[in-house]
Amino acid sequence: MSNTTRYVALMDGKAGAYGVVFPDLPGCTAMGRTVEEALRNAMDAAREWAEAVSETNGGKLPRPRAPDALRSDKETAEALAEGAAMVIVPLIFDSGRSAKANLSLDSGLLQAIDEAAEARGLTRSAFIASAAREKIATEG
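The chain above was modelled as a monomer; its predicted structure follows.
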């Protein structure tokens, strides 16, 4: 069973300009030039929104509603009728502390990771973390 909270969001737009809103997180929005970028930005926006609300609301976040429950919400139903799509966005909090993980990877893949990380000015760990976030954002 997963401990990751997932919120349903609504995405609409067209190539070059996609927007994301969260029915259960009032005022939380994100944008992106591509669907993938909008999803990555939505993850960041949800986390930042939740952190801000937690600081001012004693850590209490709204419970995410199920997609079926949201479909019966008037505003959500209107957005869907106008072409918005439901997307699931995981809420991932950074704990602020590192945790050591022992991974086994093919040596060729590890070399490719190191080269890609260096080209981006990242450590191996930072590169793998960013790749994992992107994978979670785009595929859940």
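The mean pLDDT is 88.
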